[in-house]
Amino acid sequence: MHLTGAAGPIDMVGFAPDGKTLTVLSHERAEPARPRGRAFLHQWDVASGQRVATFGQHLDRPTCFAHTRDGRHLVVGCFDGSLRLISTRARPSTRRLVDHSPAEIWALAFAPDGKTLASGGDDHSLRLWDAATGLPRATLSGHESLVSAVAYSGDGKLLASASYDKTVKLWDVATRKVLATLGDQKDRPFSLALSPTGEFLAVGCRDRGAVRLWHLPSRKELPALGGHSKQILALSFAADGKTLASADDKGTVLLWDTTTWREKQRLEDVNHVYCLAFAPDGRTLATGNAHGSIRFWDPATGRERLALEGHAEGVRSLAFSPDGKTLASGGDDHAVKLWQSSTGKELLTLKGHKRRVNAVAFSPDGRILASADHAGSIKLWYASDPD
Question: Which residue ranges make up each domain of the chain?
Answer without folding.
Answer: 10-88, 93-382
